[in-house]
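Typical record was shown:
=====
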Amino acid sequence: MALEDIVKRIKEKVSQEVEKIKQEADREGEEIINKARQEADKVKDELIKKATEEGEGERQRRLMRTRSEERKKLLALKRELIDKVFRQAKEKLDNLSEEEYLKWSKRLLLSNIDSGKEEILVSPRDKDLMERILVEGLDKKETRFLPELNEKERGFIIRKEGVQIDYTFSSIFSFLEEVSQEVEKIKQEADREGEEIINKARQEADKVKDELIKKATEEGEGERQRRLMRTRSEERKKILAFKRELIDKVFRQAKERLDNLSEEEYLKWSERLLLSNIDSGKEEILVSPRDKDLMERILVERLDKKETRFLPELNEKERGFIIRKEGLQIDYTFSSLFSYLEDELEIEVARILFGS
């Protein structure tokens, strides 16, 4: 429950901060984006106007330069906004009020300290603050707070039973940055693979536009406008369909990465969550038949909980597990985690890939 709770709260905090910063950035950047698009449209209009007087090769070169410049401006602005999101989110974490920081620390410590023999690694500036929690909320006389972290570090590391649980702000923020980098990596791969499709769609649209421009001198302005609108509509549908394909690919590849974790990574992930959630020793762990032996290795090697049982009740292809304890079910199956993250992150992924 401790891990699920902190992940949920971190995601809520970061989502709120991301949305707030995005709104501020949208307001600040709207004028820049509109101006860039207006300038690009102006150049395009001038090129179209001169198309009947210029050679096809020169017209294509001018259009490509215009698109390249516009794309560079938009990409630079997107990168600036993403960097601002993470920079301000980190500043928010580092500057929590003492009351917020104390409340956050107390909740996590109460969730993780049970034997009273744990060691809590903190920064020197937080040692007195943490010992207040020990006095006020915990009757664990042997728990020790060790000022071994960097002076500027916030958060703490819990040592218990040979395991370290890292709740430092730098570790939490590093995880969030890794998620952003992974999304950016998938985006770059999708850009490379999709460049030919996008270029082909644009070439087809340009071809139709060229035909309309050629006939513009013989047709009335009204008919020309209607044809251009139909062309733009068709082009927009193709680009929207391709964007949908890219978003689906992001989540498909992310799910494949989860499903294909190495045995070592999967064992490490499972061990950490089981150690954080098993305390009475009477829990039931629902797993897939293929994972039953793997999970029992954790029980034998890491947990001295003789009554804990692993039940092979999940689908053969399912990864992860479900913990039953005290009338509750805690679902750590990959399908459940991925379904939750997909619902939570689809809009954010679309924003990172394509902008607002």
About this structure: Residues 2-49 form the longest helix (48 residues). The chain has a mean pLDDT of 74. The beta strands are 119-121, 144-146, 157-160, 163-166, 284-286, 309-311, 322-325, 328-331. The first strand starts at residue 119 and ends at 121.
